[in-house]
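Troubleshooting log. The previous structure file for this entry was overwritten by mistake, so regenerating from the original sequence record. Sequence copied from the archived sheet and checked twice against the printout by T.R.
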Amino acid sequence: MLQLTNVVTDRGSKYAVSGAPVADRKAADMFLKELKRNKKFAKATHNTWAVLLSDGTPLKSDDGESGAGLVILRMLEREALSDHIVVVTRWYGGVKLGGDRFRRVQDCVRAYLEALG
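Regenerated output below.
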């Protein structure tokens, strides 16, 4: 598991990004379960994620952050990164970010892809 914490802070909200290779939905679910074993991530406001399986099947979840899963999925498609889950975690800081929340998700995914090499 590759994990980057404190990637972005915006108006009190803090973001982290995690990811790992996965082969199917079951592996994605196992990854999320493992991630949430850490109480800090289990108590996060949102754990949005996406994975593009090698057979072309897109999987995603907004986890209450409407549209964020699709943002992650589109970035994975552009990078042609398949069979790899990326989870963007947000701890809400008390101020709604509006459309900026999508930029923060993109910032996190970009940082993850750079760290992945």
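Helices lie at 25-35, 39-42, 68-79, 100-116. Archived copy saved in two places this time.
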